[in-house]
Protein 1
Amino acid sequence: MGLLDDRIVLVNGGSQGVGAAVARAAVREGAVVAVSGRRPEPGEALVAELAAAGGKAMFVRADLADAGQATACVARVVEAYGRVDCLVNSAGLTSRGTLLDTTPELFDQHIAINLKAPFFAMQAAVADMVRRAAPGTVVNVITSSAHGGQPFLAPYVAAKAGLAGLTRNAAHAHRWDRIRINGLNIGWTVTEGEDATQRAFHGAGDDWREQAAARLPMGKLGQPDEIADFVALLLSDRSGVVTGSVIDWDQNVLGGLD
């Protein structure tokens, strides 16, 4: 018996990085998984990988910057499998901007991906759960930077802090529907997207991961597979009654000073 046996799990932003790791963990725990993403190549490759391992999965092509497509992802999964039991919002935009140089266009991009898409995906998934009078779970992948973050992450922090608040609000609103909604504030994590960001915005070389890890207390960056195992637990019944929690999954301690 797996933690997620017979559950239908939609992972938005699931074709790479943390989302792909969550999809792998969910399949390993017995779920049927749908992953959404903008680019079909990595999404279809992941679905093929999961199928080869004996899992059942589908890819939904969607540009989550469009709220209508975020909603449509849920509709596609309901059409294919009859329901959505679990939703993971893992898509994220991390392009840089400070308070002084962020344009309205960049700000809107962050709001669209990091806040608006999760809002409307949750709206559609929770509506399906309520319609069926069935319990369900949602996990929003947020960021430890939602507590304040670096100066060059101003629009990212604004959107992700909004998602943290939304997580608590939605959890409170739907606790009597037995729908549990939690968030994970992840720290610095090794992903394809982070590699591209480090190279594009910070001039990082091939050894940036090793250099970064050497500066961290645990001697390594966050690992997607470890985060994915935690997400699978939060999606499952083994996390009990926990709802409305935004958990710091990081090696830096909020409020701690050296």
Protein 2
Amino acid sequence: MDAILTIIISFGILLALGLVVFCVFKWWDMPVIGVTPVPLFTFIAILFTSGLDVGLIMFPLGEFPTYANTAENPEYGFTNPLAIEFGFWGFLIWGFYFLTSFYFCAIEPRVKFFEIPFVRVLNNVVIIGTCAFTASLFLVYLPFYIPEIGDGETVVLTFYVIVFCVILAAAYSSTDIKFVRILSVGSTFLFIGLIALMWAIGDLGLFGLAGTLANIGGYFTNLHKFVIPLNAYHEFYLFWWFAWSIMIGQFTSRFVGGLKTQHLLLALLVIPSIPLAIWFSVLYHYYTNEISTAGLLNVAMVVVGVTFVINSLDSLIRLYSDNLNITTQRFGKLWYIVGNVAVLFGLTLLFKSQWLQIQWIGAVVVAIYLACVIYILFKHRDGVMTITTSPPENELDFEKIKVSH
């Protein structure tokens, strides 16, 4: 089974990267406009905070020691732990989000592959499952960051209550799209504030930060090594990115604000990677200098982690609710919230108990990629090849979001 999963994810990555190259060269200068366009900063904030989750905050300090232990993990010996951490989260893999954002802006309105009943159901099962996986990660890592509750390792009742409240908050915020901009921009500024706080307390300085950042060069000089899975853990990450890719592209595509295809790719590869690089560099300084994050810093990291989880779940709940016509207009706000919370909290417990795995969801997404390509080749090849603009109904009007719900 493990060998089959490796083949699936390797094929999926090569397929996706090949499609990225094709789309960029085919539609190089075409302006890309979503149904509810927003300015670039807001778009990147929505993408960054929706497309990343609590793992960004809570994983690195626990992963650096593993990447540094090349005696037990020789596959990491080709570069430093900071470059590996960045490689698992940054730059190249954001190309997946470019591909899906571009597709849902320019191609899906013409081919309507995701409106096929079976595909629609399968896609929404993926979205709901990934929502629950995000919440389960938050649940699993809470004891490490709030050791004052429990023994610092065991998930106790209080942590279940915290996660339940986070899911409840996300379900409520998903009832109105106006919360998207508030959550996304707010989360971005909180994240920047967390970086600044840890940079100041860690006494890193500008030269210290620059020196630590230089380690990320090890990623770019070994870029090819990150394409195919290095090991089972890297494979887990890649399946995780694939699980997110379609739904994040489907959600964020509506906010693309007229960027040309080439500029959209560049924006998605570079802009989110800058704060990631700085964040990981600050954490790497804490790791290499054995600086404790106990107390204020742990609390600050949990607060930012909570906002990231709420923001991510808000985006995904809104997406699958719209797709399945599970709306507040149809069921009322109360039953909409109750239903979403019940489903997501139940699935969160299943992921926590290992009954579900994100690798299975990622494998389904690879199959959806392949099926979509085959569908277009056999039924819509000529129509897709003649696309020269975004759908005409998508107007570059930044005021639309103020009246959308």
Protein 3
Amino acid sequence: MTSPTPATPPAAPATRVLVLNSGSSSVKYQLLDMRDSTRLAVGLVERIGEETSRLKHTPLLGGGGQSREQIRPIADHEEALKAVAEELAADGLGLDSPELAAIGHRVVHGGKLFTQPTVIDDAVLKEVERLIPVAPLHNPANLTGIRTAMALRPDLPQVAVFDTAFHTTMPESAARYAIDVKTADEHRIRRYGFHGTSHAYVSRRTAELLDKEPQEVNVIVLHLGNGASASAVRGGVCVDTSMGLTPLEGLVMGTRSGDVDPAVIFHLMRVGNMSADEIDVLLNKKSGLIGLCGDNDMREIRRRVDEGDEAARLAFDIYVHRLKKYIGAYYAVLGRVDAVAFTAGVGENAAPVREAAIAGLEELGLAVDGELNSVRSDEARIISPAYARVAVAVVPTDEELEIARQTYALVASRND
């Protein structure tokens, strides 16, 4: 009598998503298990192409592990992603794992065409490449990361999640500039908006804080980091946002001017003898907070304000003034506001910015509780007093989780 053949154990379900955010000289990554949104590993490769490239990898499986760091030359994104794959493999989380369902890529600019997460093929790559003129700093790096990942795992679904997608719901009255229609259409000039994955996540998380469904809630989201943007979200749908054709428009940022009279450009060309490239650098890299006071770190600016530095005080006041204008404008756009949500590095951590931005808006139903506002926490929370008609919230953003969720949902729907 022969012994029965042992049963082959069932294959582990493919529930993991690797999220890649490829910059011009960096790759940020996270590996998540979408059964419970657990982070299995996180890391960053920076200074790609330099002698002092740095890879920091932190395994989180089983409650967290010791970070590992390499400082060595990493020539390009292909070498960077191979190094990431080796680090993941060392933790039993390699890219060849059958549990890996997909790789999700942050892509900054998707134009009008990409309104949802999209499985990447040659046609998608060509369109993202076609959009390089309106996102010259971001889309080329995103493409490099995608092509490298596709070469490493050509059999695996690769999904693009676009920063602009959440804002494609804006009505034409908000998205169009008041310039000649034919010229605008020919050159794809319109307001696209950015930070969309953050605005989507934070607006939905704010609704949860209020114990309501997203479609029941109107939220003004203030994503305040080195780059900064505001959005008006009605019932879970974006109806206006502050960034435009590029991330330059809107709020005062770390190094970007935000809103400026377009004639300033012509004036600098004619009177200052500056080239288009020089003005581009001025407005994108030498303006905003750093242009006003020499610092773009809000912590340093607040320290200088507390010491009586007038340049820092003026920079802070200009920053807050612009914030108030957008809060008021988007209150008018929405008609009814249920919450104002602060997020990203400054929004989550700079209590004086939140206090100053809301101060004086009591007639709009807005107020901040000083004690609640001063608490530092990684948790989403309400910082307005109980009597306030409109909630003011601090909601830590999680763009990587949002990308992973959108990626996994798309891949799962294709497999149903």
Protein 4
Amino acid sequence: MAAEQTATASSTVPFTVPSFADEVSEAVVKVLDSGWVTTGPQTAAFERDFADYLGAAHVVAVASCTTALELCLRAMDLPPGSAVLTPSLTFCGAINAILHAGHRPVLVDIDAGTLVPGPATVAAAAARVRPAAMVVQNQGGYPVDVAALAEAAGLDRTQVVEDAAHGPGAARGGAPVGSSSYAACFSFYATKNMPIGEGGAVATSDGDFADRIRATRLHGMSKDSWRRYLPGGSWRYDVRNLGLKANMTDIQASIGRAQLAALPGWQRRRAELVARYDEALRGLPGLVVPQRELDGVQHAWHLYQVRVPDRDAIIAELESAGVATSVHFIPASHMTAYREILGEEECGSVPVTDEVAEELLSLPLYPGLPDDGLERVAAALAGALRSRG
């Protein structure tokens, strides 16, 4: 895999290293030579390519998954201050998106096995408030059952936003995540399954919703610069709704198009690495491995998240052994700013999240991880766990 670093037995095993397809450099140079580097023909082509990959009716490329979430919540035209259900075990950007859209996060607990909310925890959270919408996350690449969660919350599918930052490659019932969603938000951040560096996208089955996102990503302008400066175009435009500066550039889109062609191969490699981890870690004392495949569920394997006792000490031991790890995530309910905004009672409403969060550990998992690097990770973790009896 071109432009990709790999871990060796004599060096630290990195937590993640982004993969880049051979065609990326040439694609970027072509955009630079074209004289048009911001949102334009490459962005439109990337939107079509990604929609075809997902099987989605519409895709709108944006600046990040966080802005995608906010744009979707804005486009839903919810009353100001609406209650929006969200897992506490999520990246802070998802909580910020709800707050920046002018709404109130309502925390939902998780199932300890899948690390995502289930119908029971969603129903419990919905019973405390009358939710206007819900943000659900495909944690680590495990695809949530959107229909079941929407029903538990008493919401229509048009009131659910899927945080699919970890989702490319995941499927449920044979349908890729985002293929039939009303609003599914993807990330192309440097650590993600399809890295661009930065960037995001919204996949939707609703053309009008896509048009609202498309306008709002550029300040609410009725026409972007590409359409204004096409032959026969006009410099005139209107601003019909307040928007954000949240567009993707053609440089990013050209990288994304090259990366998308390589994604299926990278996903196969992730699955191979997961199978190796499963074998190497089987039977270790105190270890809980990720939720296994269930009928009709295809995991994207963005993360290989385990649960271990004495997590922080084990992280230190692995670091000493030359193995880098991470934690996904520090719950929102543990963050100072959110505790001040939401209050102690709300932040105390997710006991399973609080328990599980102290044990979560993400191991290195990326296409360029060599087999001997994985074996080194597994051996270091095995030694740390066995030393605890």
